[in-house]
Amino acid sequence: MKRFNCLFVVLGISISCCFSCKKEADDVTKTDSDSGYAEADYKPGAVLSGYKNYTKIYVGDLNCPIILSSPHDGTVAPANIPDRQDGVVVRDIYATDLTLRMADSIKALTGLRPHVVINELSRKKLDPNRSLAEAYLTHEDAKTAWNDYHNFIIMARTLVTKHVGKGLYLDMHGHGHDIARIEVGYLLTSAELNSTDTQINQLANKSSIFSISKESAYSFSQLINGDNSFGALLQNRGLRAIPSNRAGDRSPNSDPYFNGGYCTSAYGSSKLGGPVSAIQLETPGPNVRNTATLRQSSGGKIARAILEYMKLHYAMDLAK
Fold first, then answer.
1. Adjacent-strand bridge partners of 283
2. Which Gene3D superfamilies does this entry report, sorted A to Z (predicted)?
């Protein structure tokens, strides 16, 4: 397997939230893996694996602006890698299958393959949705897998920026909260989402969709809880979501809510800029993930919401 010919640098923003799976991102995190690929290896349709097949990327079409990832549904648990002693270790069951069905639906609807990054290691061994310093990794194999995973996202982001100019990255998760709705994360805290639209309009530059807010015809609060917000587009397809335009789902109030993790912070377009925005989707088991039939249906609905979102806010009509 080829070695990396360059060193990728990720910029992250320090952010916090009470009801969040998000952790603070390092100001500068350098990824340096012993196993990897040169940019020329990222050919459309290729499936590239990291060290010991612990991570992989399905390389999308160069003119596709969409990146998907699934960090917490891995089942591989090598005995030589110690279990993480701190942090959440619960698996996001079927999140990867949902992600792949979304990718298949996007391909069927547009003819374009999105880039998809998958972690196969159990969350007991690796949590790639944390900074390397906070991932509680003590074994070199786990650290290498962390680097591979992030280099795959970085390269996908690089390809989108280079060949399309702007794009959208969605980090896919699963939650077990009592309310079965999709939690749409933009890095805004529950308290911020509970505030007035006037106050929300002042928060665009700390969100993971800052670059969208600069181009969209809609106000930032409308991007968060208006009729054309991502949550509203999900609601229109029968998938309950928060924040959205529906009564009871405009903001979390005191309910648990995940607002976005390390990857959403590191690879979105918060105040440091960048043409790729990011959204974390925390999906419930009931109505979305628990059966193959549900995953096929909800994967298609989420894919259609993504495409409508791209048309509304990126001026990109990707549908055939």
1. 174
2. Zn-dependent exopeptidases
Burial 141-174 (b: 16+ CB within 10 A, else e): bbbbbbbbbbbbbbbbbebbeeebebbbbbbbbb
Number of domains in the chain: 1
- The residue range of the domain holding 193 is 8-314
CATH number of the domain where residue 228 is located: 3.40.630
pTM for the structure as a whole: 0.90
Taking the C-alpha atoms of residue 167 and residue 164, their distance in angstroms, rounded to an integer, is: 7
pLDDT tens, position by position, 56-98 = 999 999 999 999 999 999 999 999 999 998 889 999 999 999 9
- CA distances from residue 257 to 252, 260, 283, 300 in whole angstroms, order as listed: 6, 9, 11, 24
**C-alpha distances out from residue 249 to 151, 189, 253, 299, 310, Å:** 35, 15, 9, 21, 22
pLDDT digits (tens, 9 = 90+) for 124-174: 999 999 999 888 888 999 999 999 999 999 999 999 999 999 999 999 999
- CA 134 – CA 127 distance, rounded (Å): 9
